[in-house]
Specification:
Pfam families: Aldedh. This protein is of the alpha/beta class. It has 16 helices and 18 strands. The chain folds into 2 domains: 221 residues, Aldehyde Dehydrogenase, Chain A, domain 1 (3-Layer(aba) Sandwich), CATH 3.40.605; 192 residues, Aldehyde Dehydrogenase, Chain A, domain 2 (3-Layer(aba) Sandwich). It binds nicotinamide-adenine-dinucleotide. Nicotinamide-adenine-dinucleotide binds next to helix 8 and helix 9.
Length: 476
Protein backbone atom coordinates (compact mmCIF):
# COMPACT_ATOMS: atom_id res chain seq x y z
CA UNK A 1 0.00 0.00 0.00
CA UNK A 2 2.83 2.34 0.88
CA UNK A 3 4.40 1.66 -2.51
CA UNK A 4 1.22 2.48 -4.43
CA UNK A 5 1.15 5.99 -2.94
CA UNK A 6 4.90 6.54 -2.83
CA UNK A 7 5.91 5.20 -6.25
CA UNK A 8 7.00 8.27 -8.13
CA UNK A 9 6.88 10.45 -5.05
CA UNK A 10 9.48 13.17 -5.65
CA UNK A 11 10.63 13.13 -2.02
CA UNK A 12 10.74 9.37 -1.37
CA UNK A 13 14.46 9.14 -2.23
CA UNK A 14 15.35 12.02 0.08
CA UNK A 15 13.37 10.57 2.99
CA UNK A 16 14.93 7.14 2.58
CA UNK A 17 18.42 8.66 2.33
CA UNK A 18 17.86 10.49 5.61
CA UNK A 19 16.40 7.36 7.19
CA UNK A 20 19.50 5.37 6.20
CA UNK A 21 21.68 8.05 7.81
CA UNK A 22 19.59 7.94 10.95
CA UNK A 23 19.75 4.15 11.09
CA UNK A 24 23.54 4.32 10.76
CA UNK A 25 23.53 5.96 14.21
CA UNK A 26 25.63 8.96 13.20
CA UNK A 27 23.23 11.53 14.72
CA UNK A 28 23.30 9.92 18.16
CA UNK A 29 26.65 10.92 19.76
CA UNK A 30 26.65 14.08 21.86
CA UNK A 31 29.62 15.42 19.88
CA UNK A 32 27.72 15.16 16.58
CA UNK A 33 24.69 16.96 17.96
CA UNK A 34 26.83 19.72 19.48
CA UNK A 35 28.73 20.18 16.20
CA UNK A 36 25.48 20.56 14.22
CA UNK A 37 24.01 22.96 16.80
CA UNK A 38 27.16 25.06 16.75
CA UNK A 39 26.92 25.13 12.96
CA UNK A 40 23.37 26.53 13.33
CA UNK A 41 24.86 29.24 15.53
CA UNK A 42 27.39 30.06 12.80
CA UNK A 43 24.56 30.20 10.26
CA UNK A 44 22.84 32.85 12.43
CA UNK A 45 26.07 34.82 12.90
CA UNK A 46 27.26 34.68 9.28
CA UNK A 47 23.85 35.28 7.72
CA UNK A 48 22.59 37.87 10.19
CA UNK A 49 22.61 40.72 7.67
CA UNK A 50 21.00 38.58 4.95
CA UNK A 51 18.28 37.47 7.37
CA UNK A 52 17.50 41.08 8.27
CA UNK A 53 17.39 42.00 4.56
CA UNK A 54 15.24 39.02 3.53
CA UNK A 55 12.62 39.58 6.26
CA UNK A 56 12.62 43.28 5.39
CA UNK A 57 11.89 42.42 1.75
CA UNK A 58 9.25 39.86 2.71
CA UNK A 59 7.17 41.96 5.11
CA UNK A 60 9.04 45.19 5.82
CA UNK A 61 10.11 43.68 9.14
CA UNK A 62 11.99 46.38 11.05
CA UNK A 63 15.57 45.23 11.64
CA UNK A 64 15.20 45.74 15.41
CA UNK A 65 12.23 43.35 15.46
CA UNK A 66 13.98 40.90 13.14
CA UNK A 67 17.09 40.89 15.29
CA UNK A 68 15.09 40.31 18.46
CA UNK A 69 12.70 37.65 17.18
CA UNK A 70 14.64 35.86 14.43
CA UNK A 71 18.17 36.03 15.83
CA UNK A 72 18.40 36.80 19.56
CA UNK A 73 15.59 34.47 20.67
CA UNK A 74 16.97 31.68 18.46
CA UNK A 75 20.44 32.21 19.89
CA UNK A 76 18.98 31.96 23.40
CA UNK A 77 17.35 28.63 22.51
CA UNK A 78 20.63 27.41 21.04
CA UNK A 79 22.67 28.41 24.07
CA UNK A 80 20.21 26.94 26.57
CA UNK A 81 20.30 23.71 24.59
CA UNK A 82 24.09 23.61 24.28
CA UNK A 83 24.48 24.44 27.98
CA UNK A 84 22.18 21.61 29.09
CA UNK A 85 22.24 18.96 26.37
CA UNK A 86 24.65 16.63 28.13
CA UNK A 87 22.32 16.58 31.18
CA UNK A 88 19.08 16.27 29.13
CA UNK A 89 20.43 13.28 27.20
CA UNK A 90 21.23 11.27 30.33
CA UNK A 91 19.11 8.26 31.23
CA UNK A 92 16.67 9.11 34.01
CA UNK A 93 16.67 6.48 36.74
CA UNK A 94 13.27 5.80 38.30
CA UNK A 95 11.77 4.14 41.40
CA UNK A 96 11.63 0.35 41.54
CA UNK A 97 9.73 -2.27 43.49
CA UNK A 98 11.26 -4.71 45.98
CA UNK A 99 11.99 -7.47 43.44
CA UNK A 100 13.95 -5.11 41.18
CA UNK A 101 16.27 -3.51 43.71
CA UNK A 102 19.32 -4.99 41.97
CA UNK A 103 18.10 -4.10 38.49
CA UNK A 104 18.19 -0.90 36.56
CA UNK A 105 15.01 0.97 35.55
CA UNK A 106 15.44 4.10 33.47
CA UNK A 107 13.98 6.40 30.82
CA UNK A 108 16.11 6.57 27.68
CA UNK A 109 15.67 9.75 25.56
CA UNK A 110 15.62 8.16 22.14
CA UNK A 111 15.48 10.13 18.90
CA UNK A 112 12.34 9.49 16.82
CA UNK A 113 14.16 9.13 13.49
CA UNK A 114 13.36 11.31 10.48
CA UNK A 115 11.23 14.32 11.39
CA UNK A 116 9.47 16.91 9.27
CA UNK A 117 9.28 20.57 10.32
CA UNK A 118 6.77 22.75 8.44
CA UNK A 119 6.97 26.49 9.12
CA UNK A 120 4.80 29.56 8.40
CA UNK A 121 5.90 32.93 7.02
CA UNK A 122 5.49 35.40 9.89
CA UNK A 123 8.74 34.60 11.76
CA UNK A 124 10.28 32.64 8.90
CA UNK A 125 13.64 31.89 10.57
CA UNK A 126 12.56 31.48 14.20
CA UNK A 127 9.70 29.10 13.47
CA UNK A 128 11.79 26.50 11.64
CA UNK A 129 15.00 27.05 13.58
CA UNK A 130 13.73 26.66 17.15
CA UNK A 131 12.09 23.27 16.41
CA UNK A 132 15.19 22.26 14.42
CA UNK A 133 17.38 22.95 17.47
CA UNK A 134 15.33 20.42 19.45
CA UNK A 135 15.24 17.92 16.58
CA UNK A 136 19.04 17.98 16.28
CA UNK A 137 19.57 18.02 20.06
CA UNK A 138 17.42 14.90 20.39
CA UNK A 139 19.44 13.08 17.69
CA UNK A 140 17.02 13.12 14.75
CA UNK A 141 17.43 13.70 11.04
CA UNK A 142 15.14 16.44 9.72
CA UNK A 143 13.50 17.88 6.64
CA UNK A 144 12.61 21.55 6.90
CA UNK A 145 9.81 23.03 4.81
CA UNK A 146 9.84 26.84 5.10
CA UNK A 147 6.88 28.91 3.96
CA UNK A 148 6.73 29.77 0.27
CA UNK A 149 4.98 33.07 1.15
CA UNK A 150 8.07 34.63 2.76
CA UNK A 151 9.91 33.94 -0.50
CA UNK A 152 13.11 35.91 0.13
CA UNK A 153 13.73 34.13 3.42
CA UNK A 154 12.75 30.80 1.85
CA UNK A 155 15.40 31.34 -0.85
CA UNK A 156 18.04 32.32 1.70
CA UNK A 157 17.37 29.23 3.82
CA UNK A 158 17.27 26.90 0.81
CA UNK A 159 20.52 28.28 -0.61
CA UNK A 160 22.59 28.59 2.55
CA UNK A 161 21.49 26.32 5.41
CA UNK A 162 22.90 23.26 3.63
CA UNK A 163 26.39 24.81 3.76
CA UNK A 164 26.30 24.54 7.55
CA UNK A 165 24.51 21.26 8.29
CA UNK A 166 25.36 17.65 7.43
CA UNK A 167 23.42 17.11 4.19
CA UNK A 168 23.15 13.36 4.80
CA UNK A 169 20.90 14.16 7.75
CA UNK A 170 19.26 17.55 7.17
CA UNK A 171 17.54 18.93 4.09
CA UNK A 172 15.40 21.88 3.08
CA UNK A 173 12.42 21.27 0.81
CA UNK A 174 10.83 24.33 -0.79
CA UNK A 175 7.39 24.82 -2.29
CA UNK A 176 3.75 25.50 -1.56
CA UNK A 177 0.63 23.37 -1.25
CA UNK A 178 1.31 20.86 -4.08
CA UNK A 179 4.88 20.16 -2.92
CA UNK A 180 3.93 19.91 0.77
CA UNK A 181 1.05 17.59 -0.09
CA UNK A 182 3.45 15.21 -1.86
CA UNK A 183 6.00 15.52 0.92
CA UNK A 184 3.36 14.57 3.50
CA UNK A 185 2.61 11.32 1.66
CA UNK A 186 5.92 10.00 2.97
CA UNK A 187 6.24 8.31 6.31
CA UNK A 188 7.93 10.50 8.91
CA UNK A 189 8.63 9.56 12.50
CA UNK A 190 7.46 12.93 13.84
CA UNK A 191 5.85 16.00 12.27
CA UNK A 192 6.18 19.44 13.83
CA UNK A 193 3.79 21.85 12.14
CA UNK A 194 3.35 25.59 12.76
CA UNK A 195 0.57 27.34 10.89
CA UNK A 196 -3.17 27.81 10.71
CA UNK A 197 -5.79 25.47 12.24
CA UNK A 198 -7.27 24.44 8.81
CA UNK A 199 -3.84 23.36 7.50
CA UNK A 200 -3.13 21.77 10.88
CA UNK A 201 -6.10 19.45 10.21
CA UNK A 202 -4.67 18.53 6.79
CA UNK A 203 -1.26 17.77 8.31
CA UNK A 204 -2.76 15.69 11.12
CA UNK A 205 -4.85 13.71 8.63
CA UNK A 206 -1.75 12.97 6.53
CA UNK A 207 0.16 11.99 9.70
CA UNK A 208 -2.67 9.70 10.82
CA UNK A 209 -2.21 7.55 7.69
CA UNK A 210 1.21 6.53 9.05
CA UNK A 211 0.30 6.87 12.76
CA UNK A 212 2.95 9.57 12.94
CA UNK A 213 2.92 11.67 16.13
CA UNK A 214 2.52 15.41 15.65
CA UNK A 215 2.99 18.73 17.34
CA UNK A 216 0.61 21.35 16.00
CA UNK A 217 1.46 24.96 16.79
CA UNK A 218 -1.63 26.75 15.52
CA UNK A 219 -3.24 30.16 15.78
CA UNK A 220 -6.57 31.73 16.67
CA UNK A 221 -7.94 34.75 18.48
CA UNK A 222 -6.14 35.71 21.69
CA UNK A 223 -8.37 37.65 24.09
CA UNK A 224 -7.02 40.46 26.23
CA UNK A 225 -9.10 41.47 29.23
CA UNK A 226 -8.47 44.92 30.69
CA UNK A 227 -10.03 45.48 34.11
CA UNK A 228 -11.21 48.85 35.39
CA UNK A 229 -8.40 48.89 37.94
CA UNK A 230 -5.24 49.33 35.92
CA UNK A 231 -2.59 51.79 34.89
CA UNK A 232 -4.09 52.86 31.59
CA UNK A 233 -0.88 54.32 30.14
CA UNK A 234 1.09 51.14 30.82
CA UNK A 235 -1.70 48.92 29.46
CA UNK A 236 -1.87 50.97 26.26
CA UNK A 237 1.90 50.77 25.69
CA UNK A 238 2.13 47.04 26.40
CA UNK A 239 -0.93 46.19 24.29
CA UNK A 240 0.11 48.45 21.39
CA UNK A 241 3.60 46.91 21.38
CA UNK A 242 2.22 43.35 21.29
CA UNK A 243 -0.45 44.13 18.69
CA UNK A 244 1.69 46.16 16.29
CA UNK A 245 4.99 44.23 16.55
CA UNK A 246 5.67 42.72 13.09
CA UNK A 247 2.62 44.73 11.90
CA UNK A 248 0.38 42.47 13.97
CA UNK A 249 1.47 39.28 12.20
CA UNK A 250 2.21 37.38 15.42
CA UNK A 251 0.40 34.22 16.50
CA UNK A 252 0.30 35.31 20.16
CA UNK A 253 -0.56 38.97 19.53
CA UNK A 254 -3.51 40.23 21.60
CA UNK A 255 -6.26 39.79 19.01
CA UNK A 256 -9.01 41.85 20.69
CA UNK A 257 -9.61 43.75 23.93
CA UNK A 258 -12.46 43.07 26.32
CA UNK A 259 -13.27 45.96 28.67
CA UNK A 260 -16.07 48.13 29.99
CA UNK A 261 -17.32 51.14 28.06
CA UNK A 262 -15.62 53.41 30.65
CA UNK A 263 -12.28 51.69 30.14
CA UNK A 264 -12.67 51.92 26.35
CA UNK A 265 -13.04 55.71 26.77
CA UNK A 266 -9.90 55.89 28.92
CA UNK A 267 -7.86 53.59 26.71
CA UNK A 268 -8.45 55.45 23.46
CA UNK A 269 -6.30 58.55 24.20
CA UNK A 270 -3.67 56.33 25.87
CA UNK A 271 -3.51 54.07 22.80
CA UNK A 272 -3.29 57.12 20.54
CA UNK A 273 -0.40 58.39 22.62
CA UNK A 274 1.38 55.01 22.63
CA UNK A 275 1.03 54.64 18.84
CA UNK A 276 2.34 58.17 18.25
CA UNK A 277 5.20 57.63 20.70
CA UNK A 278 6.18 54.37 18.97
CA UNK A 279 5.68 55.26 15.30
CA UNK A 280 5.46 59.07 15.11
CA UNK A 281 2.55 61.10 13.71
CA UNK A 282 2.60 59.12 10.44
CA UNK A 283 3.40 55.41 11.04
CA UNK A 284 3.80 54.93 7.29
CA UNK A 285 7.04 56.89 7.47
CA UNK A 286 8.27 54.98 10.50
CA UNK A 287 11.18 52.54 9.96
CA UNK A 288 9.83 50.67 12.98
CA UNK A 289 6.49 49.58 11.53
CA UNK A 290 6.21 46.63 9.15
CA UNK A 291 4.09 45.79 6.12
CA UNK A 292 1.60 43.04 5.30
CA UNK A 293 3.23 39.98 3.77
CA UNK A 294 1.06 39.56 0.64
CA UNK A 295 -1.71 41.17 -1.41
CA UNK A 296 -4.09 38.41 -0.37
CA UNK A 297 -3.48 39.07 3.33
CA UNK A 298 -3.71 42.83 2.74
CA UNK A 299 -7.15 42.54 1.12
CA UNK A 300 -8.39 40.18 3.82
CA UNK A 301 -7.32 42.65 6.51
CA UNK A 302 -8.75 45.71 4.74
CA UNK A 303 -12.13 43.99 4.65
CA UNK A 304 -12.09 43.74 8.47
CA UNK A 305 -11.96 47.54 8.88
CA UNK A 306 -15.74 47.82 8.51
CA UNK A 307 -16.15 46.28 11.98
CA UNK A 308 -17.36 48.63 14.74
CA UNK A 309 -16.03 52.17 14.32
CA UNK A 310 -12.48 53.16 13.34
CA UNK A 311 -11.33 55.08 16.41
CA UNK A 312 -7.60 55.28 15.56
CA UNK A 313 -5.72 54.71 12.29
CA UNK A 314 -7.61 52.99 9.48
CA UNK A 315 -5.45 54.31 6.60
CA UNK A 316 -4.34 51.79 3.98
CA UNK A 317 -2.11 51.74 0.89
CA UNK A 318 -2.43 48.71 -1.34
CA UNK A 319 0.73 49.41 -3.37
CA UNK A 320 2.84 49.28 -0.20
CA UNK A 321 0.62 46.75 1.58
CA UNK A 322 0.45 49.28 4.41
CA UNK A 323 -2.26 49.24 7.04
CA UNK A 324 -1.92 51.86 9.77
CA UNK A 325 -1.96 50.79 13.41
CA UNK A 326 -5.73 50.71 13.87
CA UNK A 327 -8.08 50.52 16.83
CA UNK A 328 -11.73 49.64 16.25
CA UNK A 329 -14.16 50.66 19.00
CA UNK A 330 -17.56 49.19 19.91
CA UNK A 331 -17.00 46.04 17.86
CA UNK A 332 -19.84 43.52 18.01
CA UNK A 333 -19.19 39.78 18.36
CA UNK A 334 -20.99 39.35 15.02
CA UNK A 335 -18.66 41.80 13.16
CA UNK A 336 -16.19 40.43 10.55
CA UNK A 337 -13.18 41.28 12.77
CA UNK A 338 -14.48 38.84 15.38
CA UNK A 339 -15.00 35.92 12.97
CA UNK A 340 -11.34 35.11 12.24
CA UNK A 341 -7.84 35.56 13.62
CA UNK A 342 -6.84 39.13 12.71
CA UNK A 343 -3.11 38.60 12.13
CA UNK A 344 -2.52 42.25 11.21
CA UNK A 345 -2.26 45.70 12.82
CA UNK A 346 -5.93 46.00 13.77
CA UNK A 347 -7.16 45.95 17.37
CA UNK A 348 -10.91 45.60 17.96
CA UNK A 349 -12.38 46.49 21.34
CA UNK A 350 -15.46 44.55 22.43
CA UNK A 351 -17.34 46.16 25.30
CA UNK A 352 -18.43 43.93 28.19
CA UNK A 353 -20.15 44.80 31.49
CA UNK A 354 -17.70 43.18 33.91
CA UNK A 355 -15.08 40.46 34.44
CA UNK A 356 -17.66 37.65 34.66
CA UNK A 357 -19.00 38.59 31.25
CA UNK A 358 -15.45 38.73 29.85
CA UNK A 359 -14.75 35.24 31.19
CA UNK A 360 -18.02 33.89 29.74
CA UNK A 361 -17.11 35.51 26.40
CA UNK A 362 -13.70 33.83 26.39
CA UNK A 363 -15.04 30.43 27.49
CA UNK A 364 -17.75 30.47 24.80
CA UNK A 365 -15.05 30.49 22.09
CA UNK A 366 -12.27 28.11 20.95
CA UNK A 367 -9.41 27.89 23.39
CA UNK A 368 -6.76 30.49 22.44
CA UNK A 369 -2.99 30.16 22.07
CA UNK A 370 -2.44 33.05 24.49
CA UNK A 371 -4.62 34.88 26.96
CA UNK A 372 -3.91 38.26 28.54
CA UNK A 373 -5.37 39.97 31.59
CA UNK A 374 -4.47 43.42 32.88
CA UNK A 375 -5.26 44.61 36.38
CA UNK A 376 -3.54 46.31 39.32
CA UNK A 377 -5.45 43.83 41.47
CA UNK A 378 -3.65 40.50 41.26
CA UNK A 379 -6.82 38.73 42.44
CA UNK A 380 -8.48 39.73 39.18
CA UNK A 381 -5.56 38.48 37.08
CA UNK A 382 -5.61 35.22 39.04
CA UNK A 383 -9.37 34.83 38.61
CA UNK A 384 -9.06 35.13 34.82
CA UNK A 385 -6.25 32.58 34.92
CA UNK A 386 -8.25 30.19 37.16
CA UNK A 387 -11.53 30.32 35.27
CA UNK A 388 -10.29 30.06 31.65
CA UNK A 389 -8.16 27.73 29.53
CA UNK A 390 -5.51 28.70 26.95
CA UNK A 391 -2.17 27.56 25.55
CA UNK A 392 -0.26 30.18 27.54
CA UNK A 393 -1.06 33.11 29.80
CA UNK A 394 0.50 36.46 30.56
CA UNK A 395 -0.76 38.85 33.23
CA UNK A 396 -0.12 42.58 32.79
CA UNK A 397 1.86 42.30 29.57
CA UNK A 398 1.71 40.82 26.07
CA UNK A 399 4.05 38.42 24.18
CA UNK A 400 6.66 38.40 26.96
CA UNK A 401 5.93 34.86 28.19
CA UNK A 402 7.32 33.60 24.85
CA UNK A 403 10.77 34.98 25.61
CA UNK A 404 11.33 32.60 28.55
CA UNK A 405 12.93 29.35 27.44
CA UNK A 406 11.87 27.91 30.81
CA UNK A 407 8.16 28.09 29.93
CA UNK A 408 6.43 25.57 27.64
CA UNK A 409 4.99 27.22 24.53
CA UNK A 410 2.05 25.67 22.71
CA UNK A 411 -1.67 25.60 22.20
CA UNK A 412 -4.66 23.66 23.46
CA UNK A 413 -7.72 22.56 21.52
CA UNK A 414 -8.12 24.75 18.46
CA UNK A 415 -4.78 26.48 19.06
CA UNK A 416 -2.82 23.26 18.78
CA UNK A 417 -1.29 20.37 20.65
CA UNK A 418 2.15 19.78 22.08
CA UNK A 419 4.68 22.24 23.44
CA UNK A 420 8.24 23.41 22.87
CA UNK A 421 11.01 25.91 23.82
CA UNK A 422 14.03 25.07 25.93
CA UNK A 423 13.97 21.55 27.34
CA UNK A 424 10.39 21.09 26.12
CA UNK A 425 11.67 21.11 22.52
CA UNK A 426 14.24 18.42 23.32
CA UNK A 427 11.54 16.33 25.03
CA UNK A 428 9.13 16.85 22.12
CA UNK A 429 11.63 15.34 19.69
CA UNK A 430 12.64 12.51 22.04
CA UNK A 431 10.79 9.28 22.55
CA UNK A 432 10.82 8.59 26.28
CA UNK A 433 11.63 4.91 26.18
CA UNK A 434 10.83 3.05 29.37
CA UNK A 435 13.63 0.53 29.99
CA UNK A 436 14.23 -2.18 32.54
CA UNK A 437 17.56 -4.03 32.58
CA UNK A 438 17.34 -7.03 34.90
CA UNK A 439 20.00 -9.11 36.59
CA UNK A 440 20.55 -12.50 34.90
CA UNK A 441 20.81 -14.38 38.20
CA UNK A 442 18.92 -14.27 41.50
CA UNK A 443 16.23 -16.53 40.07
CA UNK A 444 14.72 -17.25 43.49
CA UNK A 445 13.40 -13.70 43.52
CA UNK A 446 11.34 -14.54 40.43
CA UNK A 447 9.92 -17.87 41.57
CA UNK A 448 6.78 -16.43 43.23
CA UNK A 449 5.41 -15.24 39.87
CA UNK A 450 5.75 -18.59 38.09
CA UNK A 451 3.17 -21.40 38.01
CA UNK A 452 2.11 -23.55 39.67
CA UNK A 453 0.33 -20.74 41.49
CA UNK A 454 -0.29 -21.01 45.22
CA UNK A 455 -1.89 -18.85 47.86
CA UNK A 456 1.54 -18.40 49.49
CA UNK A 457 3.08 -17.16 46.20
CA UNK A 458 0.20 -14.70 45.82
CA UNK A 459 0.98 -13.34 49.28
CA UNK A 460 4.66 -12.81 48.42
CA UNK A 461 3.74 -11.28 45.07
CA UNK A 462 1.38 -8.84 46.74
CA UNK A 463 3.96 -7.78 49.32
CA UNK A 464 6.68 -7.20 46.72
CA UNK A 465 4.61 -5.56 43.95
CA UNK A 466 1.85 -3.70 45.74
CA UNK A 467 1.91 0.13 45.72
CA UNK A 468 0.25 1.38 48.90
CA UNK A 469 -1.65 4.64 49.27
CA UNK A 470 0.35 7.07 51.40
CA UNK A 471 -1.06 7.40 54.94
CA UNK A 472 -2.80 4.01 54.88
CA UNK A 473 0.10 2.05 56.39
CA UNK A 474 -1.25 0.51 59.61
CA UNK A 475 2.19 -0.27 61.04
CA UNK A 476 3.05 3.38 61.72
P1 LIG B 1 -0.49 28.16 6.81
O1 LIG B 1 -1.17 27.14 7.65
O2 LIG B 1 -1.20 28.68 5.62
O3 LIG B 1 0.92 27.61 6.27
C1 LIG B 1 1.87 27.01 7.11
C2 LIG B 1 2.72 26.04 6.31
O4 LIG B 1 1.88 25.02 5.79
C3 LIG B 1 3.46 26.65 5.13
O5 LIG B 1 4.77 26.11 5.06
C4 LIG B 1 2.65 26.23 3.93
O6 LIG B 1 3.42 26.03 2.77
C5 LIG B 1 2.04 24.91 4.38
N1 LIG B 1 0.71 24.66 3.79
C6 LIG B 1 -0.23 25.58 3.50
N2 LIG B 1 -1.33 24.98 2.98
C7 LIG B 1 -1.06 23.65 2.96
C8 LIG B 1 -1.80 22.50 2.54
N3 LIG B 1 -3.02 22.61 2.04
N4 LIG B 1 -1.21 21.29 2.67
C9 LIG B 1 0.02 21.18 3.19
N5 LIG B 1 0.76 22.23 3.59
C10 LIG B 1 0.23 23.45 3.48
O7 LIG B 1 -0.10 29.34 7.82
P2 LIG B 1 0.58 30.72 7.50
O8 LIG B 1 -0.38 31.58 6.74
O9 LIG B 1 1.93 30.51 6.93
O10 LIG B 1 0.77 31.29 8.99
C11 LIG B 1 -0.26 31.93 9.67
C12 LIG B 1 -0.90 31.03 10.69
O11 LIG B 1 0.08 30.39 11.50
C13 LIG B 1 -1.75 31.80 11.69
O12 LIG B 1 -2.92 31.08 11.97
C14 LIG B 1 -0.88 31.89 12.92
O13 LIG B 1 -1.57 32.10 14.13
C15 LIG B 1 -0.21 30.57 12.88
N6 LIG B 1 1.04 30.61 13.63
C16 LIG B 1 1.13 29.89 14.77
C17 LIG B 1 2.29 29.96 15.52
C18 LIG B 1 2.45 29.20 16.80
O14 LIG B 1 3.56 29.17 17.31
N7 LIG B 1 1.43 28.57 17.33
C19 LIG B 1 3.35 30.74 15.07
C20 LIG B 1 3.21 31.45 13.89
C21 LIG B 1 2.06 31.38 13.17
Amino acid sequence: MVCSTLCGNPYAGLVSHLRASWLSGKTRPLEYRVAQLEALGRFLDDKKQEILEATELDMGKPSFEAFFSEILLCKNELNVTLNNLCQWMKDEYVDKNLVMQLDSAFIRKDPYGVVLIIAPWNYPIHLFLVPLIGAIAAGNCAIIKPSEISKNTERLVAETLGCYLDDDCFAVVTGGVPETTRLLENKFDYIFFTGSPPVGRIVMTAAAKHLTPVTLELGGKNPCYVSDTCDVTNVARRVAWGRFFNAGQTCIAPDYLLCTIEMQEKLMPALREAITEFFGPNPRESPDFGRIVSDKQFRRLRALLCSGRVALGGQTDEAERYIAPTVLADVQPSDPAMQEEIFGPILPIVVIANMDEAIDFINARPRPLALYAFSCDSKIVNQVLERTSSGGFCGNDTLMHLTLTSLPFGGIGNSGLGKYHGKFTFDTFSHHRGCLHRNMGLETLNTPRYPPYTQQKLGILTTTFEVKRRGTCTLL
